[in-house]
Specification:
2 domains; single chain; six-stranded mixed beta sheet; Beta-galactosidase, Chain A, domain 5; Glycosyltransferase; alpha+beta; eight-stranded antiparallel beta sheet
Length: 625
């Protein structure tokens, strides 16, 4: 057996306890990013309006949304980079056309709306791409076109100097703007841009907690935003701060990013996925990142020369991302192209932007790709500031969350209040198999109609405890005040326990308390549910959705055993304790979600109320092949 180690605030280099992914062959992150950039750029180029009589000449058409997204104008930089490295004229032509169209969409104040919506904070993204593209393509512009580009870039920068702040936008926009203004100042020097960038950088860094997470993505109370999303930090905020710091020589901010990045590296799973399952923006989690965020390659490439594991993380995630691409467009997760026929172009131009930045601004030399922390076996990493625990055994990697952020002002009307919590597993990966369990919105809503498709009635993918009565629906996923504990005294296992009450979406308790314990072994995960009836006497359902793979079969062996066969590995689900009824596959067709675009098969344990006021149910999911 492998002894579990627990790590809290301090990062430690882990010693390999078994076989792990290791490459002594030097790999060029720049070259690998360029390969995928061409694929994405070609797909976007095919969507460009080329009719000179069309009022949207030069724009990129999103057939999925029937919209010309102004943010798609960010592809101007990926096109420019593709031209720089290929000398293919089609890319410079596309860049010039797209840049012209984007300039025409700019409002008088210098901002761009995020069509079809009215939000203008994304001006920082468009500015950055224009400022980075200009030095590459300026020799291909006429004098008049150069003047238009400079005027547009300066207007956008001036707008951000005036309006960008934590009071105006979520924290990731502030972090991105530090880079946007710093890089703009390199093209068109202006002390105001650098001063604003520095002020914003300090404001963002001041929101870092002891674990390096940045608060400021959620709801606003008295003008201040709270809430952490690790996915947006990896894909947006940290690279913005890092690019600003390295381009201006701000060592203080650079050191803060590096300290934060040490902990964030733990959220790169062995398969290259980014674990954004538990953050407050997890409703757009795609497993490779977030639909509307940029990506991790630019972040990791900025620091790869200082720690080669970041190169490994960037490559691993890039390889994983490639699995989501069909005809050059990126879906929203592993099963997206099995569910949908077409995709919004947001993930494609956002990831292309990220790859282009990594190519131009990140590490330029090849290097080794050593094991990631998540390749190592036998450890627990607990982050007390967010009550999230990661556990890695010989064959399993899991995330268990009791993150307690609450949007107290908007409550059940808030898009941040339907994420996994309450001590549930939000991600479970198995060596040689892939995801075994995952998570999604507790109740699916189209919070942003442009990004959340209309899908009808679907069910939550997160493992959970629940019941319904005349007062409504109650679950541990609405328990934002759960008490979590981490136990690693057993050398062969790690146990994570969370206690709380089953609540409704208004945070009202329903009369049944619970303790949910996960014990992670080398080849199995055991779950123990202790119920305490405080007045309600209802049948409780323990719902265990299993991520579906092609040819997977679920076979009821006896009343307490289910065999899961036909996937990449075989499993046994068995109830070890409790007078319960196991139910298979009810409403199976509803267990899927656009985010993270996975399908599941439900195994449900029905627990009837007994004569006593407490009950204990114990069950195990074990690997048998």
């Amino acid at each position: 057996m492998i002894k579990f180690k627990i790590y809290f605030l301090n990062f430690a280099i882990l010693i390999a306890l078994g076989s792990c992914r290791n490459s002594t062959v030097e790999i060029s992150l720049k070259s690998e990013c360029l390969k995928t950039l061409y694929v994405l750029a070609d797909a976007l180029l095919d969507l460009q309006v080329t009719d000179t009589l069309d009022q949207n000449f030069g724009a990129l058409s999103c057939d999925h949304c029937s919209v010309y997204h102004t943010r798609a104008g960010e592809a101007v930089f990926p096109f420019a980079v593709a031209y720089k490295h290929s000398s293919n004229e089609k890319y410079i032509v596309a860049a010039k056309r797209l840049g012209r169209w984007l300039i025409e969409q700019q409002l008088q104040g210098g901002e761009w709306r995020e069509t079809p919506e009215e939000w203008t904070g994304t001006t920082t993204d468009q500015l950055l791409m224009m400022a980075l593209a200009f030095p590459i393509i300026k020799d291909n512009l006429t004098d008049k076109e150069k003047e238009l580009w400079e005027f547009s870039i300066r207007k956008a920068a001036d707008y951000l100097v005036r309006v960008m702040s934590p009071e105006f936008a979520s924290i990731n926009y502030c972090a991105t703007t530090t880079a946007s203004l710093a890089m703009t100042s390199k093209v068109f020097p202006d002390k105001r841009y650098l001063k604003k960038a520095q002020d914003l950088a300090i404001q963002v860094v001041s929101r870092m907690d002891e674990d390096g997470f940045i608060s400021g993505e959620g709801g606003r109370i008295y003008g201040i935003k709270y809430g952490v999303d690790v996915g947006y930090e990896i894909d947006m905020s940290l690279w913005g701060l890092g690019l600003y710091a390295k381009s201006t020589g701000d060592e203080f901010v650079d050191d803060k990013v590096k300290e934060s990045l040490k902990n964030h590296l733990y959220f790169v799973y062995p398969n290259g996925s980014i674990d954004g399952s538990w953050g407050i923006r997890s409703n757009k989690w795609t497993t490779y990142g977030s639909k509307t965020a940029d990506g991790c390659q630019i972040l990791f490439s900025l620091y790869a020369s200082e720690d080669s594991r970041y190169r490994a993380a960037a490559i691993r995630n890039l390889e994983y991302l490639r699995e989501m691409i069909k005809d050059g467009l990126i879906g929203y997760g592993p099963c997206y192209w099995d569910i949908f026929d077409e995709s919004c172009i947001y993930p494609t131009f956002a990831r292309a932007k990220n790859l282009a930045m990594a190519i131009e601004l990140g590490e330029q030399d090849p290097g080794e790709t050593p094991p990631l922390p998540t390749d190592q076996e036998g450890w627990v990493k607990y982050f007390p500031t967010v009550d999230v625990a990661l556990v890695r055994s010989k064959n399993l990697m899991t995330t268990i969350t009791a993150y307690g952020y609450k949007d107290v002002k908007r409550g059940e009307k808030s898009k941040y209040m339907y994420r996994p919590t309450g001590g549930s597993i939000s991600n479970l990966w198995v060596e040689g198999h892939g995801f075994l369990q995952t998570s999604s919105q507790t109740e699916y809503h189209r919070w942003e109609p442009m990004h959340f498709p209309e899908v009808g009635k679907i069910y939550c993918l997160t493992p959970r405890i629940e019941f319904e009565n005349e007062n409504g629906y109650f679950t541990n996923l609405y328990e934002f005040d759960g008490r979590i504990s981490v136990d690693t005294d057993d050398q062969a296992a790690a146990s994570i326990s969370t206690s709380g009450e089953l609540r409704d979406k208004n945070q009202f308790p329903g009369g049944i308390a619970y303790t949910l314990t996960h014990t992670i072994l080398d080849d199995a995960i055991e779950k123990t549910v202790k119920l305490k009836y405080l007045g309600a006497k209802q049948t409780v359902r323990i719902v265990e959705p299993i991520v579906w793979q092609a040819n997977m079969n679920f076979i009821l062996g006896d009343s307490h055993t289910v065999f899961i066969r036909g996937g990449k590995r075989d499993f046994r689900f068995e109830v070890l304790k409790g007078d319960v009824e196991v139910e298979l596959g009810k409403d199976e067709y509803r267990y899927w979600s656009p985010f993270p675009s996975l399908k599941c098969y439900p195994i449900v344990i029905n627990v009837a109320p007994g004569e006593n006021f407490t009950q204990e149910i114990k069950y195990r999911i074990s690997i048998v092949r």
